[in-house]
Automatic annotation (TrEMBL):
Its EC number is 2.7.7.18. It comes from Candidatus Accumulibacter affinis. This is Probable nicotinate-nucleotide adenylyltransferase. Belongs to the NadD family. The gene is nadD. Keywords: ATP-binding, NAD, Nucleotide-binding, Nucleotidyltransferase, Pyridine nucleotide biosynthesis, Transferase.
Amino acid sequence: MPDRPGGGPLGIFGGTFDPVHFGHLRLAEEAIDGLGLAAVRWIPAGQPALRGAPQVTARQRLAMVRLATADNPRFAVDAAEVEAARASYTVPTLERLRQADQCGAQRPLVLLLGADAFAALPGWHRWSSLFDLAHLAVAHRPGFPVDLASLPAALADCWRGRFRVQPASLSESPAGSIFSFAMTQLAISATEIRALLTQGRSARYLLPEQVIAYIRDEHLYPEY
């Protein structure tokens, strides 16, 4: 899905989405508003590299993300990692997006991360190369900014050198900076949702009704 040249900052939201839930949706929505993004592109991982195999197939996870995001014109879904049928790493994904037939070299790309994922960044494949390809935006609790003392030393040093306060500066370069934004805290996790579903309990109000219907119709996350 190529983008028009010179488009505004584009949020990139990757994940396993096993299953997608309201916490994911709220993060993407608040990133758009808090950072002034033109849109968010959701990229479900085909084969997640940093965690165990998902409980459902990549195409089922892709279908759930499409259902969850279908009514928001500011969201788009990228199926390339699912279709590639290989381990998904963020740097190669961003390199693909930087190709001329995708987003190109100059459009600002903004990788969206939760605070926990950001803190684990030094364990990622080629993590320092992320800044050559995108900005990073870290979600945090309102009133509780990222605590540098809790970060690995190399990551804390990186934050000090790259952090920018004003989201407006996102448009000044295609990559290289760190931003943060406050996100309404929703105590929802995919792990807890899967546990509820495998026990035959209701997950209503934790994820969209259309996703719940898909899970039911496809007999996903069956009771053990």
